[in-house]
């Protein structure tokens, strides 16, 4: 226990007090090459702790990075910040016809922009849009 205590009470404070951290914003521009080099390990440690904290506590990062399943996802990148992608339309607003994307590759999602053709060619898949058309009387 004594080595840990020594690191926390002596080594770390001595290291931190020796860092060339300026007292003002302008001081950063006056640092020399040797000063910047001595800040690299400290900066790397801060960046590492920040990244680990981000992964541990940020719900978006958990959704992107956690491997709940090894199965591939259907949606590669549309509204990944949301827990669920939902669109609602009033039937009267759709007009005479509309094509809705089911491949999740459209840049105009939820509408089809033809991106399913490239996806199908690339993967051998066979997805296409959901076409809705008003019945002609
Ligand atoms: S672009 Fe996705 S189904 Fe057409």
Automatic annotation (TrEMBL):
This is CDGSH iron-sulfur domain-containing protein 2 homologue. InterPro entries: CISD1/2, FeS-contain_CDGSH-typ, FeS-contain_mitoNEET_N, MitoNEET_CISD. Gene3D superfamilies: CDGSH iron-sulfur domain, mitoNEET-type. Belongs to the CISD protein family. CISD2 subfamily. It comes from the Eukaryota. Residues 84-122 form the Iron-binding zinc finger CDGSH type domain. Its main location: endoplasmic reticulum. Its cofactor is [2Fe-2S] cluster. It comes from Coptotermes formosanus (Formosan subterranean termite). GO terms for cellular component: endoplasmic reticulum membrane; mitochondrial outer membrane.
